[in-house]
Amino acid sequence: MRALVYGLMATAAVWCGTAQAQQKTLYVAAYGGSFEQTMRKEIIPGFEKQYGVKVEYVAGNSTDNLAKLQAQKGNQQIDLVILDDGPMYQAVALGFCADLAKAPVYDDLYDLAKIPSNKAVNFGAVGTGIVYNKKVFDENGWPAPTSWKDIEDAKYKKKLVVPPINNSYGLHALVMMARLNGGGEKNIEPGFEEFTDKINPNVLAYEPSPGKMTELFQSGQANIAVWGSGRVKALADTGFPAAFVYPKEGGVVLASAACQVEGSKQAAEAQQFIQYMLMPTAQMALAVDAGFGPMNKTVELKPEQQKGLPYGPEQMSKLLVVDWDTINANREVWNKRWTREVER
After folding, report:
1. What's the rounded mean pLDDT across residues 231-259?
2. Does domain 126-253+323-342 have CATH number 3.40.190.10?
3. Has domain 25-125+255-311 been given CATH number 3.40.190.10?
């Protein structure tokens, strides 16, 4: 029945979209790199054909694209923006996102996809957890890490890498350490104490660069790190013995979200593009080519396609969500404190 509904929507869109929007141009601001390649190859051509809309792609990271929205306030040139979940919560709070239009596809999403304001939606996810060098662990007879607390183990002295907290992976680690010690986003103190007193002695580097992180593992300087499932999949795909685990207390979701920009000149087309990205075919492409765990529950991946992705109801239900509203209100202060106390 769901397939029939999707089919009817697509047919209606061809008739209406082709007749009414043949000359329209939709400006989409989103990530560059491999994500842009997937969008240009697998997503955009099908959307343009189905809806009769020309898509102009504006590449930039989340910080850059949020800055563009701020610079164009009152005269937006961007119709649709794709951001990491943290910056997207900022965009919503700043009034840059319009309400999502109702559509059947939203009924097929995991709860993890939904943003409370209903002004944006998470269309894909990776998870933050722990990566380790399986070969080194096997040679030393070390068991695979199972807990966030394991990164405090003295045998990892100067072998652990953690991204700084201006990076989502490091921020997630700080929040989890706070939560596991009686605090959380609204009481981050225990997290800072845990890093300063127990984790710091093991840290080789607080490294934000994926390229540098890869080098530290490949050179043998690092054996364990806090990192994302997508990054680890890319490293493992090179043949390196990288293994990834979600700690028993839970991995943390790092989602990518989309919203129609408030004041967009192509509001209807922006809403259609968001819905298109949530359809099974697009979700499959984003999973296989870009490493995003599907948010549409109807997507079926083969076992080899699931490797390295958060996939299916069991894994999705175990991913934790952080309180971005609280984090964004305090992040500048936390960043300064981190530099002063932790990375000193």
Report:
1. 92
2. yes
3. yes
